[in-house]
Each structure stands twice: as C-alpha cells, then as structure tokens.
C-alpha cells in the first residue's frame, strides 16, 4: 500500500502489512494483546506501510512500501518517536529487472491522532478499538528516465504530493485495510491507486512479531499511462533514443498482486530490529508494457533490514 516512488518506498508503502506503521495497530514488545486489553493499547497509539504502503506496500506496489516498527510503550505525554534506518533493496523502477540497494530513513513521530512518517503527514480522523479512518498527504518522487536505459527517450514522471484516505478494520489478529491515493498537484502521474490488503499478526517466538499478508492494487488510466504507456506523447522530444518504441497504451485496471512479510524483534525497551521481504506480480496492462515485457520483469521482489530506536 513498503514515499518515494517505484524504486524506493513506492514499493513498500503499498504493501499490505507495511501500511500498519502510519496507523499504529501492530504489536512488537510482547505477546499479542488479548481482546480485553487490546482497546487500551490501541487507544495509546494513534498512528504509525507501507504499503504500503507497504510499502503497502511495498508490496510495494511494494507498497507502499516500507515499514513496520516495534510498538514500544508510549510515554504518558502522548508523544511517540522512532528513529532508525533500513538497508533496502528493490527494483530500479516498477517493472524493472535491475535492482538497487539503498539506505532508507525510518522515521515515525506521532502525537494523539496525528502522525508524521515515511507515509507522510496525516491524522486518524476516527479511531476505535476495531475501526480506523484517516487521511494523509505524502511526497511521491515519480520516476526519472535516467534510472534505467529502458526508459531512455521517455519523459520523466514528475514529483508530486499524493493525498490518501484509508480505512482499517481489526478482528483479533487480522487487519483488513483499504487505501486510496491520488495525485493532488497534477505534477506527477496525475492518477489514482487503490489498494486492498489483509494482514495477519502473531508472535512466532517470544516477543518477536511477524506480520504477513496479501495485497491487490488497482490503478487509474492516468497512472497506468504515466508509468507503462509508450505512446508518442510519452516521448521526451529532446532525448529520443534510436529504436524507442511507441504505440503501447496502458489502460486502467488491476496493476499488481503481492505478498509481504515483516518481522520485528525488540532488543530491549528502546532498540528493535526490523526485517522485511516482499513479492509482487504485475498484472494486465502493466505486465504487458514494453518496459516490463521486453526490458524488465513482471515479478518484483524487495527486502530490507534495519535498526530503530524508540523514545
């Protein structure tokens, strides 16, 4: 729902489990809460993928999609601050078969119902023990044609701000999520993405938290056109490369399906290790794009390992 675009946190923040970090409904410093004490824990954490953003990520999209975090006890003053970094590997762009490793900052600051994290600046407008509805605004880094020779001759997808509305419903250890993000400025892909995801949370060993779940992403015509079409209007007339293909016009539809796993292991009350892995398969017109079919891969992988400090 894994917000930088494609090659960065775009993959993370749209993956299902990763969307947790902005909403604050995951547990990592002890066993899964019982149903009779989960209300108290949820009310003390009001923010936090992905894709997921994920991440959500995350998968991507992968995607959204980068990251979950160990949820330590929140201070009495209502503030929660987590700082860290991730070593993250993901495709150069969405659909690429070339991968790049890069450091990614892992930052989450929350107060009451407001949050600032990799998923942007936002608020949980409605928050109960089982239902959360909210909105956020995040930076989207678009896609630069210099990322890969397969993109040479095509126009960049510009930077923009993406507005998100999201909903989450929790049933015991299962979280069902929906996220819709759209280009607010019209400077980037000018489109909309919608992601549905499910996340299962449990403690396989001791205090270690594992979150696993699938996600499905739909994208609008403008979004698909920006990232997967090779029509003449997508060419950069100042950088047309010999042999640049034109004529493929991607339409709206389901863009990808993914599976993401996130592991959080607290080292003590402040330090924690986060590991994540995800897979996404491009679908429909996205998978048939020359950027993917001829020069990339519909199978997209991502992974990361990081350390964070909570205070």
Automatic annotation (TrEMBL):
The organism of origin for this protein: Niveispirillum lacus
Domain of life: Bacteria
Family membership: Belongs to the MipA/OmpV family.
Lineage of origin: Bacteria, Pseudomonadati, Pseudomonadota, Alphaproteobacteria, Rhodospirillales
Record's keyword terms, sorted: Cell outer membrane, Membrane, Signal
Biased composition (Basic and acidic residues): 34-43
InterPro entries per UniProt: MipA (IPR010583)
Region Disordered, residue ranges: 1-46
Name the record gives this protein: MipA/OmpV family protein
Locations listed in the record: Cell outer membrane
Any one GO CC term of the record: cell outer membrane
Pfam families xref list: MipA
């Amino acid at each position: 729902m894994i917000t930088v675009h494609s090659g960065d946190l775009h993959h993370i923040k749209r993956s299902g489990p990763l969307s947790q970090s902005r909403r604050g409904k995951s547990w990592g410093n002890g066993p899964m809460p019982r149903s009779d004490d989960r209300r108290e824990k949820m009310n003390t954490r009001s923010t936090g993928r992905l894709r997921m953003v994920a991440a959500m990520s995350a998968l991507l999209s992968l995607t959204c999609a980068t990251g979950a975090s160990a949820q330590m006890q929140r201070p009495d003053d209502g503030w929660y601050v987590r700082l860290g970094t991730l070593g993250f590997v993901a495709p150069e762009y969405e659909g690429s078969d070339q991968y790049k490793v890069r450091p990614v900052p892992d930052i989450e600051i929350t107060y009451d119902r407001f949050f600032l994290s990799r998923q942007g600046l936002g608020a949980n407008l409605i928050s109960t023990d089982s239902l959360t509805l909210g909105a956020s605004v995040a930076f989207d880094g678009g896609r630069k044609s210099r990322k890969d020779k397969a993109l040479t001759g095509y126009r960049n997808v510009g930077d923009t701000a993406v507005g998100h509305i999201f909903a989450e419903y929790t049933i015991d250890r299962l979280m069902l999520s929906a996220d819709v993000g759209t280009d607010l400025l019209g400077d980037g892909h000018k489109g909309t993405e919608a992601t549905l995801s499910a996340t299962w949370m449990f403690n396989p060993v001791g205090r270690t938290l594992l979150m696993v779940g699938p996600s499905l992403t739909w994208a609008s015509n403008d979004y698909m056109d920006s990232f997967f079409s090779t029509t003449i209007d997508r060419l950069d007339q100042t950088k047309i490369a010999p042999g640049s293909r034109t004529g493929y016009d991607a339409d709206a539809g389901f863009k990808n399906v993914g599976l993401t796993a996130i592991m959080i292991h607290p080292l003590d009350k402040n330090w924690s290790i986060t590991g994540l892995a995800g897979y996404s398969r491009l679908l429909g017109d996205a998978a048939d794009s020359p950027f993917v079919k001829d020069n990339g891969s519909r199978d997209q992988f991502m992974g990361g390992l990081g350390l964070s400090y909570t205070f």
